[in-house]
Amino acid sequence: MDNDRIDEVTGLDADSLREEIEKALRGWDADYLEIRIDETSATRILYRGHELEEIGRSRSFGGNVRALYRGGWGFVSFNDPNDLRRRVEQAVSQARFVGSERSHLAEVEPVVDIVPLEVGKDPRQVPLARKKELLDEYNALIWSTPGISSSNIFYSDAHKRVVFASSEGSYVQQERIDVSLRIGATARRDGDVQQASVSLGALNDFSFVETLHDEVQRVARRAVELLDAPYVRPGVYPVVLDPILAGVFCHEAFGHLSEADHIYENERLRELMVLGRRFGQPILNIVDGAAVPGLRGSYRYDDEGVPAQKTYLIREGVLVGRLHSRETAAKMGERPTGNARALDYRFPPIVRMTNTYIEPGDATFEQLIADIKEGVYACNWYGGTTSMEMFTFSAGEAYMIRRGQVTELLRPVKLTGNVFETLMNIDGIGRDLAFNQGGGCGKAGQMPLPVSNGSPHIRIRQCVVGER
Predict the structure, then answer these.
(1) What does pLDDT average to over the chain?
(2) Which of 179, 206, 228 is the last residue of a domain?
(3) Nearest alpha carbon to residue 185 among 366, 361, 49, 312
(4) Is the pTM of the predicted complex or chain greater than 0.85?
(5) 267 and 222 share a domain?
(6) Using CA atoms, how far apart are residues 225 and 212, in angstroms rounded to an integer?
(7) Confidence class of residue 156 from pLDDT cuts 50, 70 and 90?
(8) What number is the average pLDDT over the span 234-243?
(9) Which of 7-11, 181-185, 313-317, 368-372 is predicted with the least confidence, judged by mean pLDDT?
């Protein structure tokens, strides 16, 4: 690992830094201790309309100490890495002040590892001027489309290095580069406003940013076309979701319900999320896992040093698993799943999704729509809300399905329902698994955390559809 910046801030080489960290962790009356050192270098470019609103680079450096004593946690974050032992003392003091029960941490094997950075096209090697030039081209393409009234483009890349060490003997160094881009276009006519957008991202690779000219033109044209599209007639329809919207549904409506801290703390959710309960047909399998390579939610170890895994949440329609930190796994008598994640050094790790997806089935798209006399094909995503098992999602675009054929473009629709009823109503799953790598996940003030979600096309036997 290239530790130049860490060396510069700490005044220590990699071996000396490890020695200082391990020395700071020794000799305390605590059940568990960990130190994380986090360095991030980032680029942001933002356009609103014709104007370049923001462009620049930033660097941040910091660390934290987490201490566990008799079930109580202490947490201290810092920007100055000197006197680590005093930082540990502060965290231990906090933990001893609140701890009064028994500490719960699932056992894991200590790990010592340096994870190499595997880069495609490295955005750090692309000049800032070249990044701006590309986004200028995309913004110009949007505005070359008649009927466009506004545009927005947001680009970011962030190179992060993290050093993690625990009192149990783990010492892990990891780094990653997260690249994301969102492009939106707005069309207006006689007070009527319609929007279209695309969100994209990649792990350790800038190359997708260079090839979006056709996609940008499609987004701009779609915003204008939506001005002439009719509204759907509200009602209950068979609905086919494309991989992007199906993946967002999987993440937002079901994935968050699978995070064990929510389950452990919420009696109502514990009653709903009972292992062994049937939630879907035998064709339905839902997975989360950072061990899937090359996605924005992928990593080798989580922020507690637990190896990345593949966790089945639903297998053949039955709830079989949930997502854990070491603490929630111990409290619920289950195994840790490597899902403890922190946005950066300012936050402690909490239970978070990684890459959440519906596994592919064996149907073609043509087979999914073949016997639908009247239905809706909903694509892309615009936004939505969830409340326990209830959800409302807005599609980015939609089409009618008539007599087994995709027909006219509709204005974007919203889908509403109960997630458990909707999962049970999934009666067809395509073979065309694809991942949505745009956007990010938010929880407990930590956002946007890089994640991916995915799915093949899926068919829902009946779903409430209305105007967005």
Answers:
(1) 95
(2) 228
(3) 49
(4) yes
(5) no
(6) 20
(7) very high
(8) 97
(9) 7-11
For the beta carbon of residue 211, count every other beta carbon within 10 angstroms: 9
pLDDT of residue 386: 87
Structural domain count of the chain? 2
Higher pLDDT, 384 or 380: 380
What are phi and psi for residue 308, nearest 5 degrees? -60, 145
What's residue 241's pLDDT? 98
Exposure class string for 329-347: b at 16+ Cβ within 10 A, else e: bbbbeebbbbbbbbbbbbb
User: Is 81 in the same domain as 183?
Assistant: yes
Range of the domain at 428: 235-467
Domain boundary residue among 228, 256, 284? 228
Residue 71: per-residue pLDDT:
96
- Count of alpha carbons within 13 Å of 177, Cβ hemisphere only? 19
User: Could you tell me if 240 and 151 lie in one domain?
Assistant: no
Give the integer Cα–Cα distance in Å for 440 and 63: 23
Whose tokens are 């054929």? That residue is 405
Q: Is 26 exposed, middle or buried (0-12, 13-18, 19+ CB in 10 A)?
A: exposed
Sign of the dihedral defined by the CA atoms of residues 322, 327, 332, 333, in that order: positive
Tell me, yes or no, whether 223 and 296 share the same domain.
Answer: no
Residue 364 pLDDT > 70, yes or no? yes
